[in-house]
Every structure is written in structure tokens, then in C-alpha cells.
Specification:
By secondary structure, the protein is an alpha+beta fold. It has one domain (2-179): Cyclic Phosphodiesterase, Chain: A (Alpha-Beta Complex), CATH 3.90.1140. Helices cover 20% and strands 37% of the residues. Strands 2-6-5-4-7 form a five-stranded antiparallel sheet. A four-stranded antiparallel sheet has the order 3-1-8-9. A hairpin with a 6-residue loop joins strand 8 (157-164) and strand 9. The longest helix has 17 residues, at 97-113. The radius of gyration is 17 Å and the shape is globular. It starts with a strand and ends in an 8-residue tail after the last strand. 29% of the residues are buried.
Length: 187
């Protein structure tokens, strides 16, 4: 199965992100916006994972989650990757302070122990809003939107997600939810 590890957003934050104006892209540029129901913060993309490895992945995520305490994450501001040149990804920023960085590191370490390759790029906390194809000559989001606040998310768990690619877009399904903090159960 195609899988990733995520922090799921609450309904209000996803709705605020979905209300972000979507200006018409320049000629020759296609912008594929992420469906509101799919907006999330990816802690780690796993790619194709054999079904028999899922229990070990879930165990590694549970071990990482008990090292963390619940925290608040602010979703605010927008930007694009790469920072210079033609944008390929439009994003909203996420700030969960040191708690978010530590959680991402614990997930990375736990999954590395069971054979997943460590991410080479530094962790960049963001929600992907859209993917861009073609060479846009400049920003695709108005500058006045770059500092906008979208919501505060109470992060109490992380999720192992299945991604099924369909012609109408990806369908995400939560496979396992791991509560943050020692001795916690459920979402």
C-alpha cells in the first residue's frame, strides 16, 4: 500500500485553508489543488509499503508517539517550494515549536530502525495546498495572503495513512492512530 505518516487537521482549519482564494494560473501553468478532506501535515512519506510490514510500522509509530506530549500547532502563512524560481508546490506553514520538530524526529528515527530510509532534506512543517506543473513566472498566491492565520490545531495524535490514487484524485484512509503521550489510548 502507498503510505505516509500525518498529523490530521481539524475541520475548521481545513475549511479555512479551502477558502483561500485560488487565482487563475497563467497560461501554460496547471495548479492542482488538494481536496479539503485531504489537507494534512505530512511527517513522513513512506511510499509503497508491503502489507506485512504495516504492523511493524504501526509499532514504530506508537513508540514514537509515547515520547511526545500533546501540543498546539498554528497553521498560518503561505508560500511555495522552491522558494526561488518556478513554484512546484503551494503550501501553508505549520508551527508547533520544538514539540513538532521532536515528534517528526522521533518518527524519522523509529522508522529508520525498521529499514526506512532517512529523509535527506530537513523537516519543513507545512500543509500542501496545491501542486503546480508548468513554469509560472512568479508567485501564484497574492502577497496579502502570505501572513494569514488559518487556525490552531490541538495535536493529540499522529496517523498512519493509506493513499489510493484515483483519476479524480487521491483518497486517504487512516490505518492507525497513535495518541501522543505515555499511557494514552485512542485519538
Amino acid at each position: 500500500m502507498r503510505a505516509f505518516v500525518a498529523i490530521l487537521l481539524d475541520d475548521a482549519t481545513r475549511a479555512a485553508l479551502a477558502r483561500l482564494p485560488r487565482p487563475a494560473p497563467p497560461r501554460g501553468v496547471q495548479v492542482r489543488w488538494v481536496a479539503e478532506r485531504n489537507l494534512h501535515l505530512t511527517l513522513k512519506f513512506l511510499g509503497e509499503v508491503e502489507e506485512e510490514r504495516i504492523p511493524a510500522v504501526a509499532a514504530a509509530l506508537r513508540a514514537a508517539s509515547v515520547q511526545a506530549k500533546p501540543f498546539t500547532m498554528e497553521v498560518a502563512g503561505t508560500g511555495a517550494f522552491p522558494e526561488r524560481g518556478a513554484p512546484r508546490v503551494l503550501w501553508a506553514g505549520c508551527d508547533g515549536g520544538t514539540a513538532l520538530v521532536a515528534l517528526a524526529a522521533a518518527v524519522e528515527q523509529g522508522l529508520e530502525r525498521i529499514g526506512f530510509e532517512r529523509e535527506r532534506r530537513p523537516f519543513s512543517a507545512h500543509v500542501t495546498l496545491a501542486r503546480v506543473t508548468g513554469r509560472a513566472p512568479g508567485p501564484l498566491l497574492p502577497p496579502e495572503r502570505r501572513d494569514r492565520a488559518f487556525g490552531q490545531v490541538q495535536v493529540r495524535s499522529l496517523s498512519l495513512m493509506r493513499s489510493t490514487l484515483r483519476t479524480a484524485g487521491a483518497v486517504y484512509e487512516e490505518v492507525e492512530r497513535c495518541a501522543l503521550g505515555p499511557g494514552r489510548a485512542g485519538p
